[in-house]
């Protein structure tokens, strides 16, 4: 039975090979997830990872590992640091951090499209180091006036005064409503149109906007009610707290801030890996 499980694990590892052109963090996430399903009573999980990782590489990535000097990689931590430093260098981190901080909503981009693009940048650089509050503030300040006003309205005040979890719920709710799919230019055109010449289609669209705003507020109020109920349920709260966090750098069950391979939310890049 153990042999069958081992062969199945090897097949899974080889099903998603990293060639050097994909996202290195995504590859580590997949590899950590797959190898965490296998346990051996006499072999540490990190040793299993170290043994199987070469089978997950191909082409340029495999050539890189083969050219590493003998005994330069002795632990799983050694391998993770060298892998990230090779395929996600500090220069790429700097570039993506700049893309996040200078993010802005394009003129013809809907709210939902802007939000998905912003989340995509965050996923590309999971070690960006920005707090949730900073992320939401950056996104809010990048929006056009109409979308900022819509967020403030859904928040019953200043959106930026909300806690990060509430702010995220408001954004996710707004990104799913119908009027969020309309282009910013269309909204401005309706707002600036004289009331005496407004057509039935314009009136209909304005009614849809009002209905969507009401739906936003109802969703937020329902979210708060569900939160209050869940806080009173000790079993649910204990279950939520029991969820394990997995570090994106080393794959262990610990928070990114507590990882010895991380400093100030960034992986520690070293030119001389032998220091470890």
TrEMBL record:
Biased composition, class Low complexity, residue ranges: 191-203
Positions of the Retrotransposon gag domain: 52-144
Name of the featured protein: Reverse transcriptase domain-containing protein
Keywords, in A-Z order: Nucleotidyltransferase, RNA-directed DNA polymerase, Transferase
Lineage per the UniProt record: Eukaryota, Viridiplantae, Streptophyta, Embryophyta, Tracheophyta
The organism of origin for this protein: Tanacetum coccineum
Transmembrane segments: none
An example molecular function term from Gene Ontology annotations: RNA-directed DNA polymerase activity
Stretches the record annotates as Disordered: 179-203
Transferase in keyword set: yes
InterPro entries found in the cross-reference section: Retrotrans_gag_dom (IPR005162)
Membrane as UniProt keyword: no
Domain of life of the native organism: Eukaryota
């Amino acid at each position: 039975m153990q042999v069958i499980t081992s062969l199945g694990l090897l097949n899974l590892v080889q099903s998603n090979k990293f060639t050097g052109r994909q996202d290195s963090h995504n590859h580590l996430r997949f590899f950590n997830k797959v190898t965490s399903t296998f346990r051996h009573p006499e072999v540490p999980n990190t040793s299993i990872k170290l043994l199987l990782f070469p089978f997950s590489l191909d082409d340029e990535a495999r050539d890189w590992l083969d050219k590493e000097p003998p005994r330069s990689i002795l632990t799983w931590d050694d391998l993770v640091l060298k892998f990230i430093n090779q395929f996600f260098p500090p220069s790429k981190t700097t570039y993506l951090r700049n893309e996040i901080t200078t993010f802005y909503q394009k003129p013809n981009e809907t709210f939902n499209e802007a939000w998905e693009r912003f989340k995509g940048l965050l996923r590309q650089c999971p070690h960006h180091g920005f707090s949730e509050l900073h992320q939401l503030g950056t996104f809010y300040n990048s929006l056009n006036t109409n979308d900022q006003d819509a967020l403030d309205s859904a928040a019953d005040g200043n959106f930026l005064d909300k806690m990060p979890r509430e702010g995220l719920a408001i954004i996710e709710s707004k990104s799913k409503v119908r009027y969020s799919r309309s282009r910013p230019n269309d909204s401005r055109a309706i707002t600036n149109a004289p009331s005496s010449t407004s057509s039935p289609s314009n009136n209909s669209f304005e009614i849809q906007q009002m209905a969507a705003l009401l739906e936003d507020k109802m969703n937020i109020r329902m979210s708060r009610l569900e939160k209050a109920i869940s806080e009173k349920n000790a079993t649910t709260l204990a279950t939520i707290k029991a969820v394990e966090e997995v570090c994106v750098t080393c794959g262990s069950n610990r928070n990114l801030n507590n990882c010895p391979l991380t400093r100030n939310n960034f992986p520690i890049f070293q030119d001389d890996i032998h220091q470890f």
